[in-house]
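Aim 2 progress update. The chain analyzed this quarter is reproduced below.
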Amino acid sequence: MKVIATAKSVRITSRKARLVADSVIGLPVAEALAVLSFTPRHAAKEVAKVIKSAAANAEHNYNLDVSSLRVERIDVDQAGIMKRFIPKPRGMAGSLFKRMSHLRCYVTDEEPEPDRRRRSVVAMPGRSGGQGSTRPAATRRRRPAQLRRAQEAATAAAAAEEEATTAAAAEKEALEVPATSTGDEIETSETDALDPGAAEADAGEAEADAAQDDEEKD
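Predicted structure tokens:
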């Protein structure tokens, strides 16, 4: 159930009020008030007042449990402007615009949607919410030095992996043995060129065989 509280003509500009209001949207009422109590901005007091008013309306008018309420959203609209003037040199007058805002806070006891659920940013008593940033580590803003170190580490890892792959391929090629037939060894001209002694021995044997054949014929 949604409960609304409105604060009209608050002496704060809309821009300053929105900066504070956006920081507590989605948080439980108790945690939102705790965050605002340590926020060093003048608008934090006005935003805390309207949140307390909405929680009180839910408790007294609709019998809702305050501990189950969370801040669904806070609308900040521009209100009237009070125009004042101050003296300036040479008899002139300077204008001052004192702006005001309308604050409207919505609190509810319904559970948020899974894709819009926000992690607690304050460790409250009796709750298991963690502290720190609500953004995932992968999406947090990094400094240039951190980015440079991450890029260097990625480049080194890629180079090491490439070297390991090359070494493994070379070792595999060295261990491979070419397949040969099971019969007699095939002699080629390349083998003779590599072993000249064997070629001369074969030529001598051929000459001896030819001489023996001639003697037998005679």
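The beta strands are 2-10, 70-87, 93-108. The CA atoms of residues 9 and 83 lie 14 Å apart. These observations will guide the mutagenesis experiments scheduled for the next reporting period.
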